[in-house]
Amino acid sequence: MRHLELHILQSVPVACLNRDDLGSPKTAFFGGAQRARVSSQCWKRAVREYARELCPQGFAGERTKLVVEPLRRELQALGLNADQAGDGAKALAEALGKWDADGEKKGKLQIKTLFFTSPNELQALARAYVEAGEARDAAKKALKSLKPEDLRDAADISLFGRMVADDHSLTLEGAAMFSHALSTHRVDTEMDFYSAVDDKQPEDESGAGMMGTLEFQSATYYRFVALNLDLLADAEHLGSLSAQQRQEVVRVFVEACLKALPSARQNSMNAATLPGYVLAVARDKGHPVQLINAFEAPVASRSGLLEASIKALDAEYETLKKVWGLEAVAEYRLPEMDFQALLTGVAGHVR
Length: 351
What we know:
Layout (H helix, E strand, L loop, with lengths): L2 E13 L11 E4 L2 E6 L1 H15 L7 E3 L3 H10 L4 H15 L4 H5 L9 E3 L1 H13 L6 H7 L10 H6 L15 E3 L2 E3 L6 E7 L13 E19 H4 L10 H17 L6 H4 L7 E7 L21 H20 L5 E5 L4 H9 L4
């Protein structure tokens, strides 16, 4: 399997990037020590949103239950009257997922499950439905007519994949693989006490108008992302794009992976940072291999954790190459090279 690996070290100050159901920062035990954790799903969403900002015409995928109204608009644009378009949109939505009858009672026309789609795919569905004419199963025929090239505007669906329980023919395996981000060191969750002053109260009155607590962490994270280049270029994914177009997709994806940060509590804590170290590896065979075991023994240092983490990461990588014979076509390191040179290097492995 031809693939790319991104091994990322990133120090993040006071933050709560990813919360659990109680509002606490997520954690995990690894190597017998509690670590700060950011789930793969959390960081993937941040990457998707950043990639769309960089390239809206190529990363136009949306995960939503609200497919009825967009389909109705497309059907009307193709000449159906309001009633016909409404009926057609509902029929297509029911073919995509179970209809939300409870939502309909509240005025929401939607399906029960999220569907990852794109404007181009919805247009293709509407066209196929109209072309099916008065056929009894026009909606199902429209779904069966969808082609991979209908997702040319949604590289994010090829990268992140989608699962459709009601029609497995629409399920697509994602070419990108994300691990949960873990701190390279032991982390204790800390508590921040805050209070707010009532601006309208007389100055001589003591006390706060509001007070509370928030939990937070500070950590140096190891993040791992891999991309299956063979899968990305196959006929079911982005095979209809040219090699140059796929290179641009990968450039955008890698840039988003390195620059995106989950948005939780950014207004109150603003922990936006960039990675301090990146090792990008291109391989022509084998499967992606994490370097997380570099930190199975938690890093400890009185002079900063990033440099100690870099040394541990490089040592683990050299050990794996020596013991297991890991072979790389190319390796790119940041900050030894600049960001644009790294993007150009990894994109050059896309065929």
